[in-house]
Each structure stands twice: as C-alpha cells, then as structure tokens.
C-alpha cells in the first residue's frame, strides 16, 4: 500500500503492528484507527468490485 499521509499505514507497518500484538503489546489508538481506515477502504473497494460487471474490471 502506498503511504498517503499520516492517516495511512503501509504493509510493513501493519506487519510490525501484528508482530507487537502477537507478543501481547498494547497498540496506540492512532495506529488502531489507521488500521480501521485501511480495512474500511479495502472493504469499500471489494464491495465496488462486486457490483461492477466483470467486463469493467478487465478494462
């Protein structure tokens, strides 16, 4: 994922957060909020692609 500013999270950053969680560490709210925004954007993109005809996706 491209870093679009202070409210986004990169794949590397997400992996670091997952590693911290795996070790039982607390995660700051700002990081959790960025992850939620990323998940929301991914879900919105998936929902859009589900509504588009397959021919539109190939273009």
UniProtKB/TrEMBL annotation:
This is Uncharacterized protein. It comes from Sphingomonas parva.
